[in-house]
Design goal:
Helix 4 packs across helix 6, helix 5 packs antiparallel against helix 9 and helix 9 crosses helix 10. The chain is built from eleven helices and no strands. It has two domains: 47 residues, Arc Repressor Mutant, subunit A; 135 residues. The radius of gyration is 19 Å and the shape is elongated. The protein is 71% helix and 0% strand. The protein is mostly helical.
């Protein structure tokens, strides 16, 4: 009968995240993560095939948590309400999960996702954004009645780029996101999406 693991995968990923925040990607070695978590190096290699897989899994966990927090917004029947709810979900996530939100705001996907060794992990990463992209296209069609590239870019700006910009400096400095940010983001999203012709460049 095998002994239960003392260190969960989340424990090890949390340790890796702390190392990343202190010293950046290059500092996040297996040895450093082992020292941070207290887990033997062998335990890390037993759980993750490589340092690259570990960092990829860390990014994936944060991205999956954000996606899970955002999905309910897309159930709104009225498209503008759905867009506002999706934007506000980014702010709510930053408040509820500041460490994961800071990770996604601090590091580009390319910083943590190099060539992974696990085929299963590679497949998960390849397919991760497909449901999100499909949902964004559907929301764009509901909002604007078409899938013009200008409208898709505008929607992405309103519900992803703008909320991230609103919380990013608080996340990077370790400060709490003020409650007022939600009202600012909602007003911004409504202003941009309610009158898209006012902000789109003429063809």
């Amino acid at each position: 009968m095998s002994r239960p693991s003392v260190y969960s995968s989340d424990d090890l990923l949390d340790a890796a995240r702390s190392v990343l925040f202190r010293g950046g990607v290059e500092s996040a070695t297996i040895q450093a993560i082992s020292a941070e978590s207290g887990a033997p190096v062998g335990s890390l290699y037993n759980r993750f095939r490589s340092r690259r897989d570990l960092l990829a899994q860390l990014w994936l966990r944060a991205a999956q948590r954000l996606r899970a927090a955002s999905v309910p917004a897309l159930r709104e029947e009225e498209p503008l309400a759905a867009a506002v709810a999706l934007a506000l979900a980014q702010v709510t996530f930053a408040k509820a999960e500041p460490a994961d939100a800071r990770l996604l705001a601090s590091f580009r996907r390319e910083d943590l996702l190099c060539e992974v060794e696990s085929p299963e992990l590679a497949r998960t990463l390849e397919q991760l954004n497909l449901p999100v992209e499909r949902a964004m296209r559907e929301l764009c069609k509901r909002l604007f009645g078409d899938l013009r590239s200008e409208h898709q870019r505008l929607l992405c700006f309103a519900v992803i780029d703008m909320p991230l910009a609103a919380v990013r400096r608080y996340l990077l400095s370790g400060r709490a996101v003020p409650a007022s940010v939600e009202a600012w983001v909602e007003r911004g999203v409504r202003a941009v999406l309610a009158a898209p012709e006012a902000v789109l460049e003429p063809e």
